[in-house]
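Lecture 7 notes: from sequence to structure.
We start with the chain below.
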Amino acid sequence: MTLLRSRSSRAYLLGIALLTTLLTWLAWNTNAPKMGFVLSNPSDPLGYYQWLPGTFLAADWGSMPYVHILPDGKGLSLFTYGVGLLQAPFFLLALLYCKIVGIKATGFELPFVFARLMATSTYCALGLVLLFDILRHRIPRYMVWITLAVLLFATNLYYYTVHDGGMSHVYSFFLFAWLFHNTLNMVERPNGRSLFGLFMSGTLIVLVRPLNGIALLLPLFYGIPWRNALKDRVQWLVRFPSWSIAGVCVAFILILPQLLYWKAQTGSYLVFTYGAKGEGFFWWSPHLWDILFSHQGGWLLYHPVMIGAMVMLLRGACSGKPPYADWRTILLVWVVAWYLIASWWNWWLGGSFGHRGFVEHYALLALPLAACVDALITWSRRFKWLLLFPATFLIFLNIRMSHLAFSPMDGPSWTWDSLITFWGDAFFQ
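Predicted structure tokens for the same chain:
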């Protein structure tokens, strides 16, 4: 058994290394023409990244460049520091390299660009390997490979890894996968390490993107009738008290710097940063249909492969039969996210390719996507090879669209005619 685990660990490490290398190579070649702007351009990626040079080089969070200026003249970063925390090991390696070769570091030189590309690729690879470990116990391995290949290459997970890796979504994708992995471990074989992992992954999810805190519904309700959830989850804490205390302490340590920053800049420990900018939600007029099928980044319009996953998710959740009854929690998390994003003033999440708000949810939707792959292969048992054509077509279309995507692909100038022209370019350009 020990040898088997050792071999499995080596295989996973090899898979992570190969995937990271492939994705970093793709990202490096794709971003080569615009290397000088990858980090320093005043946009969301800079908002996430600026915590690192502000911490390790300037030693002053008050000097970060991409901030909202408050009435008292202080600057407030709209972005929490979670992505920067995950990027920190790669940033420090780049900083060490600069010191060794004698480059005066500002945090925006080429080694730091490469480090950020590698960070995004690594976390995408980690997320996919965690999903592989989840799925391999539930479906044949060849279906796992197909599912993960479709997930990576036929959705905007590819785009936000290879083309726009400075955004938070791939980091959240990894954290969702880690949360899901820990949740399944606690449901199927409870142990202290997985409980500690729940504290870690849940805290980092909130630090990377506070809105994604809705994912914490997963460990609360998954694998048990909802009416018994609270009592059962308290038993986890009682059964593993040392790990519970350690988890709470580490969660507090991770959150504390963010609270202290908000206190220093605004006088309050809890801040809705976008509210300071006058942005918010329109709860009574959500664009529920638009974020799925609008020409402005409609998720299922740009990535139709996920229609099959959503059909299987709804079918399984409504059936209530094991093991699909547990999918009700996945559906709950997705529906809450759907409503929240649809209610946001900028429901299309400006500059989004295929609606980026759902990228992190692929970690949870991998199960119904695998069920869809299983159903299609079973249904076409005598003609399995025919499935290669639609799968290849969707992968080709997504990769071509990803390479041709530009900004802005939204706003008044982006119409249905613009999208149709874009599709035509993807085929014939």
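Points to note: Residues 2-31 form the longest helix (30 residues). Confidence is low (pLDDT under 50) at residues 1-6.
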